[in-house]
Design a protein that fits this description.
Keywords: Coiled coil. The structure is a single chain. The protein is built from 2 helices and no strands. The protein is mainly α and 122 residues long. The two termini are 67 Å apart.
Length: 122
């Protein structure tokens, strides 16, 4: 993945959250309007109720879509973060192994046996 992908997903998530907050506020207003309508049985009144109920249904459907999109964006961000952590862990493991190998190379006994006492023969 590109270095810019996590930023794009975070920005998408922020935008979706802003839209979700706006829709929830709108839904509260629509529901307040619905509660304030006094049904007098007139055609005009029925039209207002139908309109408000349609707006409520549309807002609920859109909220559900946005929540699903946010969950998808968060899953993508989590997967990318996990991948980056895994890659960093592999890099550290490789670096540690190379460091151990370097230490083994520098601390290995000399190949010539000068100065080493021969083992006694019995």
């Amino acid at each position: 993945t590109s270095d810019h992908q996590p930023d794009l997903h975070r920005e998408l998530r922020r935008g979706l959250r802003r839209e979700l907050a706006r829709l929830r506020r709108s839904l509260v207003r629509v529901r307040e309007d619905l509660n304030n309508v006094i049904d007098d049985g007139s055609d005009e009144n029925s039209q207002v109720l139908d309109d408000l109920q349609g707006r409520e249904s549309a807002a609920l459907a859109r909220i559900s879509e946005i929540e699903t999109s946010i969950a998808g964006a968060e899953a993508t961000i989590d997967a990318e973060r996990s991948d980056l952590v895994r890659q960093a862990g592999l890099a550290r493991a490789i670096q540690a192994r190379l460091s151990v190998e370097d230490q083994n190379m520098t601390s290995s006994p000399p190949s010539d046996r000068e100065g080493v006492l021969a083992s006694p023969k019995y």
